[in-house]
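Issue: copy button drops trailing tokens. Both records pasted manually instead:
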Amino acid sequence: MSKTVRRGYLPSDEWEFNEKSMIKMQAAAEDVYYLLNRGYHMKSASTFAGNHYTLSERQRLALARIVSPGQQLKTRADKCKNSLEKNAVVHIDGFNTIITLEIALSGSTLLKCMDGTVRDLAGLRGTYRLIDKTPQAVHLIGAALEQMDISKACFYLDAPVSNTGRLAGCIREGLKGFHFETMTEVINNVDSVLSSLDNVITSDAIILDKCQSWINLVSSILGKTLPDYKYISIK
């Protein structure tokens, strides 16, 4: 892990999300939002807007992750917790949370989304390897959870993904010094498990719509540690 790696970095992002490109992205986002609120599915809405504004596949993916219909925005906002009761147990979407922080620490492309979450454009696709930023990302999570005075942090990791066991070990080792219990679960159905729980930490839209409650931890961490980060966002 000594080699410096920029998780999520693509040189093409410098022109795909430059000032000129964002003018088209802004217009396309307004169209996608309009269509979603009238019952269109995201795939249809983003394809229509993407074709109309000749957007690249990566720009279309960004739109799909940034924009959400009004009802989903309200539902997610209603379930988002700004504070927790003392000694609460939190349930963490491990790869989702750690990878986003690794990308932030790499200075790569991140999206500031309409629901207040921070999302990335990286695709897991069954492969993952620890990088030089991984221990720091784990430590940032631990420090934030320590301030929340929780009793237990449960990390859920996708079993089919490569190096899941190594990441689980990195999490346990990295959080030894904190005053809460750490549990790592390597399972096949992370999304379905988290979808039924409360105090969930993730930015996954499907989980946010189904879980009992959630905490916007990554946004909070980055707001404090990297307050001047240049996100891709829609006004």
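Record 2 (pasted manually too):
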Amino acid sequence: MIVVLHPESTPAQVEEASAFLAERGYTVHPIRGAERTVIAAAGGALADEPGASEQLLALAFVETVHLIDKPYKLAARAYRKEPTVIDVRGVSIGGENVVIMAGPCTVESREQLLETAREVKRLGATVLRGGAYKPSTSPYSFQGMGIEGLKLLAEAREETGLPVITEVMDLRNVELVCQYADILQIGTRNMQNYDLLREVGNVRTPVCLKRGMSAKIEEWLQAAEYILTRGNPNVMLCERGIRTFETYTRNTLDLSAVPAAKELSHLPVIVDPSQGTGRASLVQSLCRGAVAVGADALLIEVHPHPERALKDGPQQVTPELFARLMDEIRPIARAVGRTL
């Protein structure tokens, strides 16, 4: 439910309307703009909404009430008409620029990480990606360096100035990862780990929420709602490929999800073509497509020596291929009114 108050409404009236909604079980989020205040209310009983709406409209200082019939409220386009822009250490995600997040799938050593960080920055990346904790289907696969990997990411940020995005897998580690990372990544396997979503909702560190490998777009948005309802407004969605019957690619990258998510939601949308295909030879083409359909950022795996990678070597591009990729997507960004 979205409650729009008259421009001349007072703080006391905002509090009155908020208390009215809270008493009926809603989580209340007042938004004070330059000209008027809007109250977003989520979590109340659907059957109660029509009656509550009528009672609110009886208040002289309430201008309009909009009922939202979707199971996600705060993530919905109706909640916020303008796209959300998230600032990460001076990098705006969701604005005019297409943000490039690049780096190795997994932090393997100080030398590997710093070499990659220097190269991706030189070639135009503005955010450094790298996994300190890595979820793996097999328990025998490399699981990441843990806290030592986090420290190396912080060192790379100190040297290059690039903000860091890295995955958090365990709700018990959220506070720790926040000490080193600028964006928390929630991986596909944890998209519906509701305890973890609530925990990252309790902080204000931006969150990159990857789509579950078999998740509908609506389920993806409802997962974002778990974070938003806890008070963290800094959520971005990441399309990373879904599981289909196809076996040539690791996943099927659903580029149609980008304009669909932007039509349904105000949140920034990122595309991960590396996980989306599992093949470095396809990353370049899908980056072009992602920019063309409106992606706000690309999350690209880059490794100086993919053949030596401890994890996911076949999907990581070399710095040379990354350079060509960047040259190709710049004119596409300009053609759709964006810049890199």
